[in-house]
Specification:
14 helices; Phosphorylase Kinase, domain 1; globular; alpha+beta; 34% helix; two-stranded antiparallel sheet; 370 residues; 11 strands; 2 domains; Transferase(Phosphotransferase), domain 1
Length: 370
């Protein structure tokens, strides 16, 4: 078994074991694993993600993820705490949400009532709106990348993965990547990477898949009555049908679980194949269904403007963070115990792992460009 899979204490032998006490292992995936730890000085539980230095996992993609997420600080994004190096790992300490992910909630409840789905979708849109206004496009919004934190009677939503994100202030997305089932038509249509596409409408599409899945406990373009059998012989035909439905925005509202007209209107406007015609986030924030039961502090004015004003210096410090990240990456082979000097910005877990669920299946992100 690889060393990083068998470690009973990934901080053992490191000076950082005096700052953090390991409690239990939370999860593992393609790019690392996560432990629940206790920060000794504050007596606060944190989640620490460990990325192996021995497997060449620390590359420009990890750098990009850290840069983009470090620019963000928002109530609906997992908070970054600290990044440091040990002799085996690049370690990232972050907020521990303590709850389940949205995929598990949806499966356990076999779909959510419309009011509950709206409550979570309102939070998701606030977070995505903030990201976009900071120049960051996520490109992998999905149920399993959304964590829930218990709060009084309703959960608080937290986005926790920026592994495929890109900063449009520096470059436009071109690579056709993401998670099958959540990917917008313009992304699927760019497999050859012969042109750039606008990332923000693609995030809107993926957010629509999250909304649809919350309401109906199924994905919008999956198997339907009359499809070929689910076997190897018909796999290519089934995949083609799946892609054609996405490209046509062919979404159906299940007959056995109807929603309000305003909700259906929003769903259909999100799943508009043309990104130029698709509803935008500013339009979603004013859509009648979205505005129902909106929390009082959000109902008046531009709430995200307050967050942007409070944290406006993040844009100015982006280049400083980039230099710091690259220095930390270079230090991997030179100074194992040297902590990276990172500001307390936001960062997330981007394990890319999955677990099988009863109704909706979690799936790993994919790069369609080979």
């Amino acid at each position: 078994m690889p060393a990083d899979q068998s470690d009973s204490n990934p901080l053992a032998g490191s000076a950082w074991c005096q700052k953090f006490r390991v409690i239990e292992r939370l999860s593992a995936g393609a790019y690392g694993f996560v432990w629940l730890c206790l920060e000794v000085a504050t007596d606060v539980q944190v989640a620490i993600k460990f990325i192996s230095r021995e497997r060449n996992k620390i590359d420009k993609n990890v750098e990009r993820e850290i840069i983009n997420h470090s620019m963000l600080e928002h109530p609906h994004i997992i908070e970054f705490k600290l990044c440091f190096l040990t002799d085996k790992y690049l370690a990232i300490a972050m907020e521990y949400a303590g709850g389940e992910d949205l995929l598990k909630l949806v499966n356990d409840r076999h779909g959510l009532p419309e009011d509950d789905a709206r409550w979570l979708f309102q939070q998701l849109m606030l977070a995505v709106d903030y990201m976009h206004r900071m120049g960051v496009v996520n490109r992998d919004i999905k149920l399993e990348n959304i964590l829930l934190k218990a709060y009084e009677t309703h959960p608080i939503l937290k986005i926790c993965d920026f592994g495929y994100s890109i900063n449009e202030n520096h470059s436009l997305p071109k690579t056709a990547l993401g998670t099958p089932g959540y990917t917008a038509p313009e992304v699927l249509g760019n497999v050859r990477q012969d042109e750039f596409y606008e990332g923000r409408p693609a995030d809107v599409w993926s957010s629509g898949v999250v909304l649809y899945s919350m309401l109906f406990c199924r994905y919008p373009f999956d198997e339907r009555k009359g499809d070929p059998p689910n076997d190897r012989q018909h796999a290519q035909h089934r995949q083609q049908l799946f892609i054609e439905r996405i490209q046509a925005g062919d979404v159906q509202i299940p007959w056995d679980r109807q929603v309000s007209p305003d909700c259906e209107d929003l769903i259909r406007r999100i799943f508009t194949p043309s990104p130029l015609r698709r509803i935008t986030i500013p339009e979603i924030l004013q859509q009648p269904w979205f505005l129902v039961n909106l929390p009082a502090e959000l109902a008046h004015g531009d709430w995200n403007r307050q967050v942007l004003q409070e944290e406006i210096d993040f844009k100015q410090r982006a280049e400083e963070i980039r230099v710091t990240v690259r220095s930390a990456l270079q230090a991997v082979t030179r100074s194992p115990e040297r902590p990276a000097k990172w500001p307390s910005h936001c960062m997330s877990d981007s394990l890319g792992g999955y677990s099988s669920m009863s109704d909706l299946d979690a799936s790993e992100g994919a790069n369609y460009s080979n």
